[in-house]
Amino acid sequence: MTGSRADRTARTGVVLVNHDSAEDTVGCIASLEASYDLDMDVVVIDNSDSDDSLDALRDLVGDRAVVLSSGGNLGYAGGSNVGIRRCLERGNEFVWLLNPDTRVEPETLPRLKALLTEVPDCGVVGPRIVHPAPPGGAETVWFDGGIVDESKAGETRHLHQGRGVAQVAPPTVRDVDYVTGASLLTRRTVLQTVGLLPDSYFLYFEETHWCRDVRRAGWRVMVDQQARMLHHQRSTGAMPSPYHLYYMTRNRYLFVERALGGDGEAALAQLRGKWLRNWRRKVEQQAPEWLPEFDALVERAAADARAGRDGRNDAVSHVPWPDDVVRSETPAARPRDGVSNR
Hints:
The protein is α/β, with parallel strands linked by helices and 342 residues long.
């Protein structure tokens, strides 16, 4: 890309955090190379605990991007911040955070940057993100803007999530409470004044908290639904992973207390009455053997939240998934605390 040459600095620095997702990362880079705006520097952060992953990733990516090591799995914000610092050192005017399993369209970046130009007090902008159409099906919206409902103890949701693209209102530009870290474009000046992403969450809610800080600093957070991206769905959603269950539960409590100044217990009660109840029902129907582990994991997350424990919890990586329990009486530990699926 034109901005990758050593003799000039691109306007946009792109940060991809890779955690055991090299093929996705290369696919995302390929979509960036088809953009109508190639004025970008791409930096890939190898966010892995493996000693061998950095060299393998560099071999795969080649000279299409700069590949840096985070020094270990630092979580989404920790890995992203390594890349953000690189972009700031490089002098990039804009910083674009992307998930490896997203695919940009040629007009995505030009549209997002046009909004930042047209709206000087917009500090963060995101696109409409859709799930590709399955065979015989239709595209569905995954993200059209993030909403934080303080009347429901800080419940967060994606606008129009799960609805067919053809079923929602025509795309528009709107203010939102947060932009998903799967595709978040911000200004250099915002990062310099607000700071980097809070890395204490390890996974989930860090960009939601950060967007809250951006708005408090006087910037607008917006979504341009005419700018589109694809997000490849990696699971059916039939069963919860241990790390998803733990970090979403713990961090919802911490987010409400730390970012909203609200009642963490109320947030936990709301979560139990809806999100956790729905997941528990699925476990009860499909893998009842896993129910004790499910309940114990929820209680561990609640206890850690009450104690103010944050950051990475390695014990969660060794909790067996429901399919492990069903297939074997002595399931192997299968660490799956990556950050590529948001």
